[in-house]
Amino acid sequence: MALWKLHGNGRTVAPGAVVAPDERMNWGATVAIGIQHVIAMFGATFLVPVLTGFPVSTTLFFSGVGTLLFLVVTRNKLPSYLGSSFAFIAPITAATATAGTGSALAGIVAVGLLLAAVGVIVQFAGLGWVDRLMPPVVAGAIVALIGFNLAPVAWTSFREAPLTGTITLAAVILFSVLFRGFLGRISIFLGVIVGYIAALIQNEIDFTPVADAAWIGFPEFQLADVTSPQTWSVIAMFLPVVLVLVAENVGHVRGVATMTDASVNRSTGRALIADGAATTLAGLFGGSGTTTYGENIGVMAATRVYSTAVYWVAGAAAIVLSLSPKIGAVFNTIPPGVLGGVTTALYGLIGIIGIKIWVDNRVDFSRPVNQYTGAVALVLAIAGFTMQWGDFQLGAIVLGSVAALVIYHLGNAIARLRKTGADDGGPIPAVGPLGGDPL
C-alpha cells in the first residue's frame, strides 16, 4: 500500500493545485477534513436504514468498514466514501414486506456478488460492453424508474403528518436554492433538521427508546437468509440495482480522474469489485448496500483535497459512531411526517437523475424505439405492475428494467431490418450553446 507524501507545507493548497490521492495535508488538517466527509455522508447514509427499517448503527458500521475495504481493494489510489445506496430502498421495502428482512439481505448479497463480477470483467475487458448493453435511453429509464417506483411510499409517510411533511419539503427546497457550496449540497440533511424541530414542537416524537438505549454497544447484526424458498422469488427485483451502481461508480471514477489525473480511470474495475465486496459484506450481516457518494465528491471539489488519507479517517470515524446504540436510537425517532417530506423530494430526485442521463446524452425521443423504451418502463414502475407464478413474483422494477432492455434492443433490430427509421439514431445534434445561465 502506497504511503502519502506531504503536500507542500501540509497546511495550504496553492491556487490551481490539488492534493493528489497519494499526498496528504498535515495530520491535523487530514483529520478535520476526514470528519467533514463524515458529516457530508451522514445525512444520506442514515436515511436509507431509517426508511427501510434496518438498524442505523449496523448500516453506519458497514459504511465505515466498506470504505476501508474500498481503499484496500483499489490499492489506496482512489478516494471515495461508500455510503448506503438509495437504489436499494425500493427492492428492500418490497422484499421485506413479502419475504422478511433475511431475504432482503440475501438480495443485497446477490447485487454485491454480481457487481463484483462486473468489476472483474471491466478490469480485463473494459467498459465498452456495458455501454452497448445499457445505452443512455435504457440507463436513464432504469435509474428513473427506481426513483419513481417509490412515490407511493413517500405518500404513505407524508399523509400521516401533512403539516410536518410540508415544512420538511419546503425546507429542503429552500436550503437547496438559498445556500451555495457545501451547505447547498446537504440541503436534505438540513431539511430533516428543520422538520424534526417542527415535529418536536407538535409533540410527534417519542424519546423513550433513546433513554433506554446504551451509550456504547455493538451494532445489531443479522444473517442473510439464503435458504428460504421466498428468498429466490425476491432476488430478481434487486438485480436492476447493479446497473445503477455501475453507473454511479463509473461516474465517480471519471469525476476524480477529471479533477486529478486521467490515470485514475484505470481503477474503474477495482472500484466496482470493491463496492461489490463491501455490499456483499454488508448484506451478509445486516447492513444496507453501498455506493460511492456524490456528497463526498462535492467536499473534495470544495477543498481540492483528494488524499485517500482523509477517507481512512472518515471510515474509522463512522465505525466509532456506529458503536453507540443511543445515536442509532436518536435517528430512529424521526417521525413519519419528516420522512414523508424528505422522501417526496429524494425519490423524485432519483428519478430526475435518470432523466438527466437522457438530457446529457441528447436522446432523440422522436424515434419510436426510444419513446417506448422510456414510456413503458416508467409506467410499469410508477403503477407498480407485478407478475406472479405461484410463490415467484416479479416486481415493477424488474419488469420495467426488462421492458427497457427488450424494447430497445429488439425494437432496434426490427426497425433496422425493416429500415423504418424507428430505431435509435444516436444523439440529437447540438444546435447552438447547451445549458448555461440565461442572458
From TrEMBL:
UniProt keyword Transport present: yes
Signal peptide positions on this chain: none
GO CC annotation terms, alphabetical: plasma membrane
UniProt entry tagged with the keyword NADP: no
Membrane topology according to the record: Multi-pass membrane protein
Keywords carried by this UniProt record: Membrane, Transmembrane, Transmembrane helix, Transport
Location, primary (coarse class): membrane
GO terms of molecular function: xanthine transmembrane transporter activity
Pfam families: Xan_ur_permease
Coiled-coil spans in chain: none
Compartment list: Membrane
InterPro entries: NCS2 (IPR006043), Xan_ur_permease (IPR006042)
Regions that span the bilayer: 54-73, 80-99, 105-130, 137-155, 161-179, 186-202, 231-250, 309-331, 337-357, 369-386, 392-410
Family named by the database record: Belongs to the nucleobase:cation symporter-2 (NCS2) (TC 2.A.40) family.
Stored NCBIfam families: ncs2
Protein's name according to its UniProt entry: Nitrate reductase
Organism encoding this protein: Microbacterium hatanonis
